[in-house]
Design goal:
Order of helices and strands: HH
Number of helices: 2
Number of domains: 1
CATH class: Alpha Beta
CATH superfamily: RNA polymerase subunit, RPB6/omega
Helix content: 40-55%
Length: 62
């Protein structure tokens, strides 16, 4: 997994957005037996291969 830490809200938004992309026909970045877009997105999140970044304000960085 990537070393960057996400809040639970960021993780939910990233996985939800990625699941929607997969549902709409985007390529999958992991080899998996699953056909459920949400499960695939969660696997991608765990492996750190989701091509989505989070932009934060400087004051939001801890």
């Amino acid at each position: 997994m990537k070393s960057e830490m996400y809040t639970r809200y960021e993780r939910a938004r990233i996985v939800g957005a990625r699941a929607l992309q997969i549902f709409m026909g985007a390529p999958v970045f992991v080899n998996t037996e699953s056909i459920d877009p949400l499960e695939i997105a969660l696997e991608e999140m765990n492996l750190g291969v989701i091509p989505i970044t989070v932009k934060r304000n400087k004051r939001d960085i801890r």
